[in-house]
């Protein structure tokens, strides 16, 4: 049930946000403070998601096989490798560590 | 092969490369416990990559539906700002405005604005070809990723549980272009882990927005 609520709720709110942008007068959204905060939101949320998905089980911070995957992903990004290589190399590393345990 | 205009070539190459990220979303959706159908519908109706990843990420972390939708909404606000910039350029009305809004994302806006030197006609072409092109490929690849992940079974055994944070790392990476964004990213990571034991599952991701508010409060 949660899954359906998330799919429909996210779909509806994402669409409404986009439509609102096309319909509201530009001056409503041009406050500099709002613009600055909004520019930081993606960096902050995506960073939070990296660690929340990489080092958390429920409400506990844990270090497990996923760390190896993330280290390899970081290396791939530093080596300027393309996105699919980043994701797949992380998955392979993590899977090997998971099975080896 | 007929010769395509440079604008359409830009649009199609962006569509294919960005659409391919859909594989990662399809896999992430299934790994977080969504069915293949739910994952595909997600891409069809929400169609805003980072928000979709965030919503399934929150659910995967054990968060509530409300937290998941809130995270997606926060990441989606930038699409509203894109719409503000695009509306005068596109000059759409009625159902065309709804269609334009649905495909208003990072890439369609980026390609449209990138065509400025080629004129307003090229900007409109760039917007529509990129928006619709990404839509087609994103949904196609979401389906492939979801079916693939379903076939694999236990997400951890195939490394999908690490592929998801790695995908987030890949999404944030190109945004870390200045010293200040790198500091903000590091602070957000530390903050999220610090509040994790104190808050309900999934909510630390939303709480991290405090970092953006503090960072952006003063110039």
- Kindly, what is the distance between the CA atoms of the first and last residues of chain B, rounded to a whole number of angstroms? 51 Å
Order of helices and strands of chain A: HHEEHH
What's the mean pLDDT score of chain B? 91
Strand content of chain B: under 5%
Major sheet description of chain B = none
Q: In percent terms, what proportion of residues of chain A is strand? A: under 5%
- Net shape of chain B: globular
Number of helical segments with 4 or more residues of chain A: 4
Question: Residue ranges of chain B: pLDDT <50 for 5 or more in a row?
Answer: none
- The overall average pLDDT of chain A, rounded, is 91
Low-confidence stretches of chain A: none
Spatially, the strands of the biggest sheet of chain A line up as 1-2
Structural class of chain B: mainly alpha
Radius of gyration of chain A, CA atoms, in whole angstroms = 19 Å
Summarize the amount of helix of chain A as a percent range.
over 70%
Nearest-angstrom radius of gyration of chain B? 18 Å
Give me the number of helical elements of chain B: 12
Apparent shape of chain A: elongated
How many E-type strands of chain A?
A: 2
Instruction: Name the pair of protein chains with the most residues at their interface, and give those residue counts.
Output: A-B, 74 and 101 residues
